[in-house]
């Protein structure tokens, strides 16, 4: 009954140094507008998404058309792949080759993060640095018109948890940090103006360091050394 609970979050990285940062409790994050630019400017259609952070979508016809209204562009986002308990068989986790290849991580590493421990660590960041956060699996559907209006009027960060159905295979989980960036602070899930903000500041990335004991018990796995089938990488647990 409880075997569909989240067990691990997986971060795929191209360099061992990035994997070691996670082992050291460093969480590297990018804002929504960075992922939009990956597709629009660099034609990266796997990691990039031109609709990232869109708040309104026209679903009246057969196609979904996202309107060019964006919100929460500069909040740090930590993106991972979701593994549920029932995804683990014979002490192995099967990951679609499509995911790893599109992230260019065939020679890279996967870092497994214990989900419940990770939530403890996020609470430590919140307590130590006074930074709020939201975490949830991504919904691969456009928001309804009523939901879009609600998000827009209330100024919530929920729009960052909606993505196009074409990315569903990525099984993404997100953490959105309520950092003071580009003139706003997130308090109780709502945007509050910061009137002392320097309007020229632009966030390119943000790294949060977990102090003291790391509860998410990271496991580093070499993808190049992992077992493979025709369609999957098999990540073997210790």
Describe, in plain words, how this protein is organized in 3D.
With 238 residues, this protein is α+β, with helices and mostly antiparallel strands. Helix content is 20%, strand content 31%. Strand 6 and strand 7 (92-96) form a beta hairpin. It is globular, with a radius of gyration of 18 Å. The chain starts with 5 loop residues before the first strand and ends with a strand. 32% of the residues are buried.
Q: Please give the number of β-strands.
A: 16
Strand content: 25-35%
Helix and strand sequence: EHEHEEEEEHEHEHEEEEEEE
Percent of residues in helices: 10-25%
Structural class estimated from helices and strands: alpha+beta
Which shape, going by the Cα principal axes?
globular
Count of discrete alpha- or pi-helical segments spanning 4 or more residues = 5
């Amino acid at each position: 009954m409880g075997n569909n609970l989240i067990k691990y979050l997986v971060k795929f990285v191209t360099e061992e140094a990035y994997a070691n940062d996670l082992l050291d409790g460093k969480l590297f994050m990018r804002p929504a507008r960075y992922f939009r630019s990956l597709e629009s400017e660099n034609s990266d259609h796997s990691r990039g998404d031109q609709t990232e952070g869109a708040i309104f979508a026209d679903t009246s016809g057969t196609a979904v058309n996202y309107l060019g209204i964006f919100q929460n562009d500069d909040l740090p986002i930590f993106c991972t792949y979701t593994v549920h308990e029932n995804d683990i068989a014979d002490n192995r986790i099967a990951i679609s080759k499509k995911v790893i290849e599109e992230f260019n991580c065939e020679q890279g590493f996967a870092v497994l993060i214990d989900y419940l421990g990770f939530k403890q660590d996020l609470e430590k960041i919140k307590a130590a640095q006074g930074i709020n956060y939201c975490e949830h699996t991504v919904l691969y559907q456009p928001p309804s018109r009523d939901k879009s209006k609600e998000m827009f009027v209330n100024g919530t960060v929920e729009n960052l948890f909606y993505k196009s159905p074409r990315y569903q295979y990525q099984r993404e989980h997100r953490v959105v940090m309520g950092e003071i960036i580009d003139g706003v602070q997130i308090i109780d899930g709502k945007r509050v103006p910061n009137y002392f903000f320097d309007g020229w500041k632009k966030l390119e990335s943000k790294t949060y360091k977990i102090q003291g004991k790391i509860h998410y018990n990271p496991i580093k796995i070499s993808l190049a050394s992992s077992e493979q089938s025709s369609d999957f990488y098999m990540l073997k647990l210790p």
